[in-house]
Specification:
By secondary structure, this protein is an all-alpha fold. Helix content is about 70%, strand content about 0%.
């Protein structure tokens, strides 16, 4: 259920989600995951805001939040228009697309999030393939997919709390106190 509200409130929610996604992007870079586990794997905290935007605001707003948070994250981290930026962009857009499609079939935030994580990894590997031009990169998905399902479950679980809070908040999107 997408919450309807006036344009100013929606714009405020978009701005808050973009800022939160940018902060989560930076904080996630500080979390040391042992490279012995899966090199380059991350928990996907920034995708929480895409999922929240998709459920609370709708598809177009979620796409806008995704694009803006990736661009801001790239500018702030100094990775603007390098391979890391394009991996983040392809992953974010793929996750948005996957979540958008799965949302048409189920309302389960956990399932939507897990598919978003799988699509995120697929998009990043496709971008990496375009960069390194070796089909061997696709074997890496065998390592990434199990981690993506676990990370997607975790981020979906966190997202469900945020979504529940926003939907039940007395000032939620309607502008009424």
């Amino acid at each position: 259920m997408v919450i309807q509200s006036n344009k100013i409130n929606r714009l405020i929610y978009i701005a808050i989600l973009v800022a939160l996604g940018t902060v989560l992007h930076g904080l996630e870079a500080l979390i040391p995951l042992p490279n012995l586990f899966i090199p380059g794997a991350k928990l996907g905290f920034a995708n929480i805001v895409t999922l929240v935007a998709l459920i609370i605001l709708g598809e177009n707003e979620a796409l806008l939040v995704t694009i803006l948070r990736v661009f801001l994250g790239g500018l702030i981290s100094g990775n603007f228009f390098n391979i890391g930026f394009f991996l983040a962009l392809s992953g974010g857009l793929s996750a948005w697309f996957g979540m958008k499609m799965v949302k048409k079939v189920t309302e389960s935030v956990l399932i939507i999030s897990m598919f978003g994580a799988l699509f995120h990894n697929t998009g990043q590997i496709l971008a990496a393939f375009g960069y390194i031009q070796s089909a061997h990169i696709f074997w890496y998905l065998l390592l990434l997919y199990p981690f993506a399902i676990m990370a997607g479950f975790f981020t979906g679980y966190l997202s469900s709390f945020i979504i529940h809070y926003v939907k039940n908040s007395s000032t939620s999107m309607t502008g009424k106190s």
